[in-house]
Amino acid sequence: MKLMERMLKRKGLAFAIVALWSTSMLAHEEEQRASYRFCEDPWPPYTDGEVGRHPEKGMAVELFREFAARMEADFELMLLPWKRCLHWVKTGQFDGIMLLTRNEERAQYLLFSDPVHHDVNLVWTRQGRNFQRDFNSFEDLKGLKVGTVAGFNYGEPFNKAVEEYELDIDEGPSILSSLKRLDLNRIDVFLVNRDAGEQALKSEPLLRSRLKYQAGPFEKVPFHIGLSAESPVTREYSQLNDTIADMREDGTLERIFHPHSSPAPLEN
Q1: Which distant-in-sequence residues (6+ apart) come within 8 Å of 10 by Cβ?
Q2: pTM
Q3: Statement: residue 262 has pLDDT above 60
Q4: 126 phi and psi, to 5 degrees?
Q5: Are strands 189-193 and 211-214 parallel, antiparallel or unpaired?
Q6: How far apart are CA 153 and CA 82, in angstroms?
Q7: What is the average per-residue pLDDT within 35-54?
Q8: Has residue 3 got a pLDDT over 60?
Q9: Has residue 163 got a pLDDT over 90?
Q10: If we measure between CA atoms, which residue out of 152, 154, 144 comes closest to residue 219?
Q11: Average pLDDT over all residues of the chain
Q12: Which of 65, 84, 127, 202, CA to CA, is 20 to 30 A from 107?
């Protein structure tokens, strides 16, 4: 009887040691799990929500949920005014930017991931307006008041064309405000990609019915994750790109960025 009691005690002690070891290992793993802060401005359909808060939804939000599930890291997402987001990532107060395009200025303080998405800016106009041109080149924008959004990266070819052809640029604070100015003929054309334009007009069906878009002189550009050169997040660069490659291969990127697979017409 005493022998049996001693054996049970030993087994109980062994179970206690295993449980303690398991708890310690889990705590150690939690301590080892890195956490990073990424910012973006409200940019539907990529990020949706209010400045100063966590984004409520969006393609980029879903993308980072996948990163958190597949990588040994947590990501805190915050919506900020765009210039502040860029500045705080530049100084290392934030670890990175959720989604953006590349240019030489940003490349001075950001490490860009492999592309996660590609998109192209279109030329939006008012229904019934005929310009007697096809907008095949940036020179076709000459003589028109061209609407853009402050802080957007339209690419080096466009920036050079603005100077070369002395294009008349009218920067608006948001996509919707620029589309409303287009409707009022305060600008002649407006440049933005289809997804962002359609999302901005989602709650404005009458305004949407008065506007159309067509292909322009822009080429498709890649969208990347931006990692601050001042942050330890750069250690995750290889794993991030490996994760992106896996998500591309298994169709996750296509599901996130192209949830509706039917192609849209070039002119609408």
Answers
A1: none
A2: 0.80
A3: no
A4: -85, 140
A5: unpaired
A6: 12
A7: 95
A8: no
A9: yes
A10: 154
A11: 89
A12: 65
Give the integer Cα–Cα distance in Å for 254 and 115.
Answer: 12
The token pair at 62 is: 């879903």
> What is the pLDDT, as a whole number, of residue 268?
73
Quick count: other Cβ atoms within 10 Å of Cβ 188? 19
Contact 178, 84 (CB under 8 A): no
The answer to whether residues 65 and 28 touch, using CB atoms and an 8 Å cutoff, is no
Q: What is the 3-state secondary structure (H, E, C) of the chain?
A: CHHHHHHHHHHHHHHHHHHHHHHHHHHHHHHHCEEEEEEECCECCCEECCCCCCCCECHHHHHHHHHHHHCCEEEEEEECCHHHHHHHHHCCCCCEEEEECCCHHHHCCEEECCCCEEECEEEEEECCCCCCCCCCCHHHHCCCEEEEECCCCCCHHHHHHHHHCCCEEEEECCHHHHHHHHHCCCCCEEEEEHHHHHHHCCCCHHHHHCEEEECCCCCCEEEEEEEECCCHHHHHHHHHHHHHHHHHHCCHHHHHHCCCCCCCCCCC
Among 13-22, 166-175, 218-227, which is the least confidently predicted range? Answer: 13-22
68, two tokens: 């958190």
Amino acid at 104: E
Q: Are the beta carbons of 55 and 227 closer than 8 angstroms?
A: no
Q: Which residues contact 39 (CB under 8 A, 6 or more apart)?
A: 77, 78, 79, 80, 85, 88, 89, 94, 96, 97, 98
Q: Which residue has the tokens 């953006």?
A: 100
Place of tokens 């002119």: 267
- pLDDT digits over 132-159, tens only? 889 999 999 999 999 999 989 999 999 9
Nearest CA to 171 out of 188, 193, 152 is that of: 152
